[in-house]
Amino acid sequence: MPVTSVEKDTEALTMTIVADFPVPVSRLWDAYVDPRQIEKFWGPETYPATFLRHDVFPGGRSIYFMTGPEGDRSGGYWEFLSVDPGKSFEVRDGFASPEGEPNPEMPSMRMIFVFSETPEGSRLTTTTYFNSAEELEQLLEMGMEEGTRSAMSQIDAVLADLASFAAGRDTESQILGDTQVRVSRIVRGSVEDVWRAHHEPELMRRWMLGPDGWTMPVCEPATEVGEVYRTEWEDANGENRFGFTGEVLESAPPLREVTTEAMIGMEGEPSTNDLTLTPVTGGTLASVVITYPSAEVRDTVLGTGMVDGMESSYSRLEREVLQSV
């Protein structure tokens, strides 16, 4: 168990937890910025977490919920106040609905996470600042310290599992809820170059093609909130054309973009794609949380081989685009 000490200061209204790990700082940092990893230990052992959003940059936001043994859910959020990559980040931490709406009836806290090297590996010092002695007492009575110890007891197993989160793995999908799925892959390239590859037509036409044998005759990207994009593909014979269109809802270049997506010519509510690019060891973690109109639509789309098509595209991106930029 990595927790070295827990110190509560009722005068300063803080609780400081120190934990030591036999891994480099970069490995520990990656575990906290990668939603696939942090959700394996952020919740207590009996309340595993699911992260619907995890934007580790100033102004970014995390939305998560923890699911209990009886299926009950408890939501939370982080608002990132500052980020010093590889060294520290500061968040406003609070309670929320499972969808991420802050609960104004519950207290929020300021938390600072500091990552440092030690002779044996790395150390994480987490300091929580409470607004009042009453809130400090309330949260301790709710089991905050015990929950944190339980959560952190799971980190060692995640840190030891290098293979599941390493660069070089194929694109993977994870169902997050009835209508949501996360598709993730580490792309061997910088965040800036991967962002450009998602937004510059001359680059998009070279890699965003799915399986071999397709071309992109229409490529009209959008970069500003409110703009509309349109992309169309056809096979090598100029047949079987299909495409998608949508609108940019949020944009924080080069780290995050939220867009709608609808198949051209098809009726129905569009899906929403929340793309986040996060620098990690080995490249850029490209994570897309897709929200579909229904579970049926989600399963239908996944059944088309979408994830395999995305892997073909990402592999082509590394091979034919990022090596030359």
UniProtKB/TrEMBL annotation:
<dbReference type="Pfam" id="PF08327">
    <property type="entry name" value="AHSA1"/>
</dbReference>
<protein>
    <recommendedName>
        <fullName>Activator of Hsp90 ATPase homologue 1/2-like C-terminal domain-containing protein</fullName>
    </recommendedName>
</protein>
<dbReference type="InterPro" id="IPR023393">
    <property type="entry name" value="START-like_dom_sf"/>
</dbReference>
<dbReference type="InterPro" id="IPR013538">
    <property type="entry name" value="ASHA1/2-like_C"/>
</dbReference>
<feature type="domain" description="Activator of Hsp90 ATPase homologue 1/2-like C-terminal">
    <location>
        <begin position="190"/>
        <end position="319"/>
    </location>
</feature>
<feature type="domain" description="Activator of Hsp90 ATPase homologue 1/2-like C-terminal">
    <location>
        <begin position="23"/>
        <end position="159"/>
    </location>
</feature>
<comment type="similarity">
    <text>Belongs to the AHA1 family.</text>
</comment>
